[in-house]
Amino acid sequence: MEKNSVHVKNSLGPNNILRVDCSSKDDFLGVHDLKPGQTFDFSFNDSIFKTKFDCTLAQGQGFIHQASFRAYEGGGFIVHYGKKNFWDAREDGIYFTHGKETPKLEYKWS
What we know:
By secondary structure, the protein is an all-beta fold. 0% of the residues lie in helices and 57% in strands. The protein has no helices and 9 strands. The protein has strands at residues 4-10, 18-23, 28-34, 39-44, 50-59, 65-75, 84-90, 93-97, 104-107. The strands form 2 sheets. A 5-stranded mixed beta sheet has the order 4-1-7-8-9, with no helix packed on it. It has a 4-stranded antiparallel beta sheet with strand order 3-2-5-6, with no helix packed on it. The N and C termini lie far apart (38 Å). The mean pLDDT is 95.
């Protein structure tokens, strides 16, 4: 069965590093600093319990601009296979798509 996956891309302006920090209740995936154009990807299988991954993205001087959100939720009674969540960090906020539709603005930087 194909694993589910989360993809976080830095589509910020030149020299603007994106800091990505994602975790579930069981897994800390580390802190990753992405240059513009780079992507952080991770894949996993849904649990028969709930599978949730939360991410905090930060950018700007001293990583002052942040957004925290649930990057993936699944499992429980409905187990997903091959589900893809694409998050695109842009200057005006964080955009989301499953890959087929046009990305939509989901979160603004704070």
